[in-house]
Specification:
The complex is a heterodimer of chains A (436) and B (323). By secondary structure, chain A is α/β, with parallel strands linked by helices. Chain A is built from 15 helices and 17 strands. In chain A, the strands form 4 sheets. Chain A has a 6-stranded mixed β-sheet, with helices on both faces. Chain A has a 4-stranded antiparallel β-sheet with strand order 2-8-7-4, with no helix packed on it. A 4-stranded parallel β-sheet of chain A has the order 11-10-9-12, with helices on both faces. In chain A, a hairpin with a 5-residue loop joins strand 7 and strand 8 (94-102). In chain A, helix 5 crosses helix 8 and helix 12 crosses helix 15. With 323 residues, chain B is an all-alpha fold. Chain B has 14 helices and no strands. Chain B has helices at residues 19-41, 44-66, 77-87, 95-110, 123-134, 136-139, 146-154, 180-185, 197-209, 216-232, 236-241, 245-252, 263-283, 290-307. The chains are: A alpha/beta (436), B mainly alpha (323). At the A-B interface, helix 1, helix 7, strand 15, strand 16 and helix 13 of A face helix 1 and helix 13 of B.
Chain lengths: 436, 323
């Protein structure tokens, strides 16, 4: 009751649509073409270190990390570099991309061997060599994230997978529990972190059961069941739900002694330490009402979306109206079918015109549902009002900078207004004004 | 795969709620009151409700047509205003007065301020108050169910009145002697919709079950009135069941635009309503205080909203974020 007085933070009861959660991951064959954009992470784009005509193998470095916040990009196929061209990243920015024509042999580069890790520095170097980024969707370079200050005592494993449709993390937990365990052990050991909490939404009882069984003997590791209210997997929400700590405004999880890792990310750490094979494949949930056989597909990173969709089959009579990379709440609508699967891609949703249609918007009736739903306790309706008046002071008082564009306010709005977009505009406006 | 793709900002899905559905739920919640009013006051109640509602919808349509604004009639909010306004009128009201009320509610209180979402006071409430002020005698010409005549005679009330107004020869309130069951079922004088507590409570349950409104405002409002009544020695149940309190608490104080957003705000709003209502009922020179309490608190809503904001997750303390 008192907590509700402080902040309702109800979230949204989104449909689950996780029909593929029970399906074993299917490995997709080597595609006809691989396109590796040099930006598959937050931060500086990579520099291509191959040129047209070069031969590459599985695990060959093709894009070298640039600057402090960046992550290496490796080839997932053996073959020949056919072009270095400019493509549009899902962020909209134009970035260089290495295009490879696979030879189908999948010869592994001799440079791929298990790393020797003895301490924090060598561990972070290994993670950097893995080319690992946050696989939940954000794509923040993991090596940078794991370089935590000394006060961090808890690693939170994000296994909420709160987006509808997506089941990539679910399958990781059910299929690769041992890698997850190895990854958690490594992170706790080399970063000297004593506690670990794995947060899983209660709509995945099999995952909760599997992870609890797997982790019960581990000292300091617990599994926390979360309610199925979107967005449990939002970093700040997850930290509050699993540890009770509030990340301060403008701060980082490490300010409250926490580092958050997606469950597939930590699993890739486990795998890399054992094999030395960098991040070159990704499990993608392919779903949507235009897809013939929705399933979880292990895809070589760089495979164009149309090849993945062709592998799963598109319904003859249902044309695709919208193609989403990621989940329906925060995913990005792709402008073309050639867009490649990148490191952060965890879903490809092909929706029909009917499923993609949105109702017309009406005037705001000031019902306050956006306020009740906002997982961070913001007041979208008031923020929209302040933004209309271009009132920067009011926007700052309303903490518009905290908004993480989770989409909950738009989802629950009965007037069907694009509340999240207004929040985004307001946030950017306040940021620009602050820089003046 | 040659077809063109739709590219829009996320989220790509929305829930199936709509303004029309929310308003439709309120209309459904009002139906028990409509039926009860016809049973208690006779078929003319339905005529009054029908004419008032039609007038509200008509004015909304005509005004927006004249102003070349999109036609908002489909959102059903004018239907609600019509029914609520009608339920605030006595059954004997001349129909032209009801139509004047509809004009004031829809055109003056609602559309002139920008239509749905922009009116700063409850439109039906403004209609009611203007009619009560401007047409006082006709608005208080009560028609009594046969049962209430007997009751009024049996408790020696000096004049025909609503239970809240019933006094004996010395001017002492007779509310405490009024049979509670009659108050609960609404067989007494009053405006169409406010008398039958049973019907109002059925509507309230429907609004809660469908999550159309939160219980916070009605519950704090009623609880505040109950506590103050008990403190000053008034009959608690009779106070809760008489006058426009229940109807106002459930249907008029919970109007989205004119009530606060947050739980904290709703509690403050309910407290204020209760205090003002009791102040008017017990110490003012009017028997009824619900309309003015809601009107007054409506005006405070923007301030309540600003003062009862939620604390965002991780937000710095007040004022610190300005820096």
């Amino acid at each position: 009751m008192f907590k509700k007085l402080k902040r309702a933070a109800l979230g949204a009861s989104v449909p689950h649509e996780k029909a593929t959660a029970a399906m074993q991951t299917v490995k997709m064959p080597v595609p006809g073409k691989v396109v590796l954009p040099m930006q598959q992470h937050i931060g500086e784009p990579c520099t291509p270190v191959v040129k047209k005509g070069d031969t590459v193998l599985v695990g060959t470095l093709v894009g070298k990390a640039n600057g402090a916040v960046s992550a290496n990009i490796y080839s997932g196929v053996s073959g020949t570099v056919s072009a270095i061209e400019t493509v549009r990243a899902s962020s909209g920015a134009m970035v260089p991309a290495v295009v490879i024509t696979p030879d189908g042999n999948q010869t592994v580069d001799s440079a791929v061997k298990a790393p020797v890790v003895t301490d924090k520095a060598s561990f972070l170097a290994a993670v950097q060599d893995c080319g690992l980024v946050g696989l939940g969707g954000a794509g923040f370079p993991t090596a940078v994230k794991l370089n935590v200050p000394s006060g961090v005592d808890t690693v939170v494993i994000n296994a909420a997978e709160c987006e509808p449709y997506l089941a990539a993390d679910t399958r990781e937990m059910l299929e690769n529990g041992d890698s997850i365990l190895a990854g958690i052990r490594a992170v706790m050991k080399y970063l000297a972190i004593k506690n670990c909490v794995v947060g899983i939404e209660n709509n995945k009882p099999e995952c909760i059961e599997t992870m609890t069984r797997l982790l019960k003997a581990e000292a300091g590791v617990t599994v926390k069941t979360l309610p199925s209210r979107y967005p449990q997997g939002a970093e700040k929400v997850l930290i509050e739900k699993t540890t009770g700590r509030e990340v301060p405004q403008g701060g980082l999880p490490s300010d409250v002694g926490v580092v958050v890792l997606n469950v597939t990310t930590v699993s890739v750490i486990g795998k890399f330490l054992a094999t030395g094979m960098p991040l070159t494949t990704k499990r993608v949930t392919v779903a949507g009402d235009a897809v013939q056989n929705p399933q979880n597909v292990e895809v070589i990173i760089g495979t164009p979306a149309n090849e993945v969709l062709a592998f799963c089959g598109l319904k003859q009579d249902v044309p695709v109206a919208k193609l989403i990379s990621g989940g329906p709440m925060m995913g990005v609508a792709l402008p073309d079918f050639e867009h490649p699967v990148v490191k952060q891609t965890n879903g490809l949703l092909a929706l029909s015109a009917k499923a993609a249609a949105k109702p017309d918007m009406g005037p705001c009736i000031r019902c306050g549902r956006c306020i009740d739903a906002c997982p961070l306790g913001l007041a979208p309706v008031q923020i929209a009002g302040a933004f209309n008046k271009k009132d920067v002071e009011a926007l700052n008082k309303l903490c518009v900078d905290l908004c993480m564009m989770c989409g909950t306010c738009s989802y629950v709005c009965p007037a069907k207004r694009p509340v999240t977009q207004v929040m985004s505009l307001a946030k950017n406006f306040a940021k620009k004004e602050a820089q003046k | 795969m040659e077809n063109r793709l739709v590219v829009t900002a996320s989220p790509h899905i929305v829930d199936n709620s709509s303004t029309r559905k929310l308003m439709g739920n309120v209309v459904l919640a009002l139906l028990p009151c409509v039926i009860a009013s016809a049973l208690i006051f006779g078929a003319r109640a339905l005529l009054v409700i029908g004419v008032t509602t039609a007038a509200c919808v008509g004015f909304e349509y005509l005004y927006t047509r004249l102003m070349k604004k999109p036609n908002p009639v489909g959102d059903l909010s004018a239907v609600i205003t019509g029914i609520i306004l009608a339920l605030n009128l006595p059954v004997s009201i001349p129909l032209w007065i009801a139509i004047v009320g509809a004009f004031i509610s829809i055109v003056i209180a609602k559309q002139l301020f920008g239509g749905i979402g922009f009116n700063f006071v409850n439109p039906a409430l403004v209609g009611r108050i203007v009619l009560f002020t401007g047409f006082a005698p006709r608005m208080t010409t009560w028609t009594y169910p046969a049962k209430s005549q007997e009751v009024l005679t049996s408790i020696d009330a000096v004049a025909s009145a609503t239970p809240l107004q019933a006094v004996d020869a010395n001017g002492t309130s007779l509310l405490s002697q009024y049979p509670l069951m009659d108050l609960f079922l609404g067989v007494h004088g009053g405006v169409l919709g406010e008398t039958c507590a049973l019907a109002i409570l059925i509507g309230f349950v429907w609004l809660l079950v469908t999550r159309t409104i939160s219980a916070a405002i009605p519950v704090t409002y009623l609880a505040t009135v109950a506590v103050i009544s008990a403190l000053v020695g008034e009959p608690v149940l009779a106070q809760l069941l008489s006058g426009g309190l229940l109807f106002g608490a459930v249907f008029m104080a919970t109007d989205y635009v004119t009530s606060p957003f947050t739980l904290k705000g709703k509690i403050v709003f309910g407290l204020g309503l209760g205090i003002i209502t009791c102040g008017i009922r017990f110490w003012g020179n009017m028997a009824e205080g619900v309309s003015y309490a809601i009107l007054f608190m409506n005006l405070l809503v923007p301030y309540i909203n600003d003062l009862t904001r939620q604390k965002p997750l991780g937000a710095k303390k007040k004022g610190a974020s300005k820096a």
